[in-house]
Amino acid sequence: MASDDAEREATGDGIGEASAAVGDEASEQAERDRVAWQLGKSHRKVDAMERMRGVTRYTDDLKLPGMLHAKILRSPHAHARIKSIDSSAALAMPGVFAVVTGQDFKIPYGIIPWTPDENALAVDKVCHVGDGLAALAAVDEDTANAALRAIKVEYDVLKPYFDPEEALKVRDREGTINPYSRKGNVSKHVLLEFGDIEAELARADLVIEGEYFFEGTTHGAIEPHCALAHVDGGGVLTVWSATQVSHYLHRELAKVLELPAHKIRVIQPPLGGAFGGKSEPFDLEFVVAKLAMKTGRPVKLLYTREEVFYAHRGRHPMKMRHRTGFTRDGGLLGVDARTILDGGAYSSFGLVTTYYSGQLMCSPYIFPAYRFDSTRAYTNKPACGPKRGHGSVQPRFAMEIQLDKASVALGLDPIELRRRNAIKAGEKTVNEFQVGSSGFLECLEKVERSSGWVAKRRELPYGRGIGIAGSTYISGTNYPIYPNEMPQAAVQICLDRSGRARVFSGANDIGQGSNTMLAVIVSEELGIPLEDIRVLSADTDLCPVDLGAYSSRITLMVGNACLDAAQRLRRKVCESVAKRWGVSRKRVTLAGRMAIDREDPARHVDSAQAFQWAEADHGLLGETGSYNTPKDRHGEYRGGTIGASPAYSFTAHVAEVEVDAETGLVEVKTIWIAHDCGKALSRKIVEGQIEGSTYMGFGEALMERHAVDPAHRGVHVGPSFLDYRMPTFLDTPDLEAMIVEAPDANGPYGAKEAGEGPLHSSIPAIANAIYDAVGIRLDRLPFSPQTVLAALRQREERERAGQLAPHKPADRESRRSA
Amino acid sequence: MSPAAIMLSMTVNGEPVQVAAPPHWTLLEVLRYRLDLIGSKQGCDKGDCGACTVQIDGVPQLACLTLAIHAEGRAVTTVEGLGLLAGGVHPLQDAFDRHTAAQCGFCTPGILLSAEALLRKRGREVSRAEVCEALAGNLCRCTGYTKIIDAVVDASRVMAGANTQEAGRGE
Ligand code: FES
Ligand code: FES
């Protein structure tokens, strides 16, 4: 913060003369010393009450005069060439207004500019069951659905590939799944090596080898994707979409529809959850836009729940092989990781996912050598993409079990083993990322103490166990998706005479509370309560560009931009009040809807008066703030920018489980989570992120499975909330969220991310607890009763064969005799 | 095209309502598309998520699985009517707000209606286990449920307190 402030002072903000510089410095010091009146408190969110009253309009709640409803025809085949599409009968039906096919969307797009490999609707071939190939607009959904059935498609069915390793072997064009791929079914390959991994493993006292499989999971936001488009009289296309990346959607719409960007307005209405599942353009946005252009009418499309499962972009299935070397006292020497990612039919964020599967493993532990070799394959399945904890949740599962195995082999307490290897503030990772702050040790200590770790390790009986895992995550990526020199975040704030503030931000509030976060910062700086602050967000006509809600970037980046603008305004307001009172600016502070004289608190005026004085002095009160990332955080090698972040968060989980050895049922009793978010700007919101993340990881560990069935031509195994089992109120364990604050110099007030990090270690903590309970290592997810039972049987056999000593024998003995 | 509409009469949030809708429409469709009561959400449209939960004659029901004609002559309460029950902001809404129990808020209307039924039935402070039992049919993907349970228990305490006060005044 200090250097940032100095820079802001030095470059000047047009309010003080150069001679005031010395006074300003003292004033900045006073500012820093002032007592926070909003930060770190709990707040009512700025937009929650209207949601609870049922008046908030989410995308599907919007209705325009003359609005039509669209539906998309989807492929029943996993892999097929389209020979012909005949939509004449559909178009002739009463109530049907227009039909579009892939021929209307020949320009390919992709969220990553280097891999534009999908079309809004399939042009020549379909690549997975559920791939869209035609769409139409009709007076209502029933009519649209009936008309879809009248579209005739002739397919040339091709051999589908569901196994990534099999797909990777294919060399011919016929078997190349993605129509734009130039390297067969290799979507991306990354091999990076740091230090001398073979030498480190050779000198290791212990090398643990393990193979792990993380079958995919999906986001499961309760609001399905929805979009509405309308072209106004002036030819401006407005698209309302349940998206978490309005800016990227804006860019891709312009590209595919061949419209200038200024002729398109993208609005993200309040959103019903996303978790990464709405972080790129989907077919429906292009479809409604094109149909609105064709018909001149507003057109809306709401995915069915089944369509959401096929749209997917969820967690990649990963097959992982890890070799991890240790010294006898538990020092981590190196990791050698080999990973196959099952990408599905399109790239999505896959280029980044492939890097993340390796790049994000070099913390929270420090070690001298690392190699990762990750290959992403195209398969005939719905495309995988980013889900909360993008790319690193799967390898974290492998990594943390490896550590647990080592602690058993070395006879070390697993928390102690992690402590010995913990990365410290200011250290550089083996892949050359600069870590600023780190509260990891405090996280470990907090979960150790609150879970009663030491006693439970000794005392829990057979069937009951406790496990630990740690993790780290980024607070935004240092570099945007498309290279440019412009700010990564920008915010505009206006103050008005009634004492209120309006905040314009392009950032997407997806339920995580980013609008409230911005209001808290403005409140803190300008002294007005949250209810006097209006945050207008994610409308490309009204708001400055923001890159969106992904990679946990908003608090750090948009927060910094907001702080920048708010501090400029604060200086103006304080200066004008100081002038009226004939005191120095540093004596004036803003809090409690007032401007107050610090040295004589009895003297104060209300905020409206203070703002009016400032407006009289300066003209209309508006300021912009920008944020760009520091450029010294990454490694100097190809790919060395991917995964580099201005600040890293840290997490530790302890899970306590009970395993029923008769049925294989695992019950997670409690999860203790300590998360270092730098500084909690709004306490309950941060806790909510920790709890929500942990819950999501818990679901992935025990019950969630997103997969297609090769025996049934690649249809989804259960595209509904009944079959895709997400934890209910009754399934979810007690979640004890604890906030750790190791402030980071790059975060606003020191703040880092909280929305994704606390998911990662949830899963391996449960796996490790299951081992502690019954002595089985689960290397495949999810830990269903069948998997657990099979592992228990296997262990029994090995015990009988004398290859393994019984687990927790003392306890089992005493039970047998009881 | 949809078949000819039929006329339905019901009481919605205390008001008598007459509405024409196709006979195969669900209560959720009638509420959202005909009456503009968009507070009831569609998360799955097949009875799996609970986002569409409303009350019919005071009992929580899934509006997406209920044909609108089933509500003929009955009293339907949606989240828009919840405040009315309390003459402003319902203690549940206030507690949800204080505890940040709504993140995206998409599940919240349904959860509020399930919770209200529980609190009315119990008429006293409820336990966390009771809340989990009563809300097991409502999925929330954002919160991990913790803050929702906190809020419902808190609201039950507030309401029980208010009841005791009222009873006290009556004596
Ligand atoms: S929409 Fe009715 S249960 Fe999901
Ligand atoms: S708050 Fe988002 S689903 Fe419950």
UniProtKB/TrEMBL annotation, chain A:
Compositional bias per record (Basic and acidic residues), positions renumbered to this chain: 808-818
**Region (Disordered) location:** 1-33, 794-818
* Pfam families per UniProt: Ald_Xan_dh_C, MoCoBD_1, MoCoBD_2
Ranges of residues in domain Aldehyde oxidase/xanthine dehydrogenase a/b hammerhead:
53-159
Q: Extract the PANTHER family matched here.
A: XANTHINE DEHYDROGENASE (PTHR11908), XANTHINE DEHYDROGENASE SUBUNIT D-RELATED (PTHR11908:SF157)
- What is the name of this protein? Xanthine dehydrogenase family protein molybdopterin-binding subunit
Organism per entry = Nannocystis punicea
Automatic annotation (TrEMBL), chain B:
Task: Give every 2Fe-2S ferredoxin-type domain span.
Answer: 6-82
User: Which InterPro entries does this one have?
Assistant: 2Fe-2S-bd, 2Fe-2S-bd_dom_sf, 2Fe-2S_ferredoxin-like_sf, 2Fe-2S_ferredoxin-type, 2Fe2S_fd_BS, Beta-grasp_dom_sf, Diverse_Oxidoreductases
Q: Name one Pfam family in it.
A: Fer2_2
Stretches that traverse the bilayer: none
Its signal peptide is: none
Q: Which UniProt keywords apply?
A: 2Fe-2S, Iron, Iron-sulfur, Metal-binding, Oxidoreductase
* Domain of life (superkingdom): Bacteria
Q: How is this protein named in the record?
A: (2Fe-2S)-binding protein
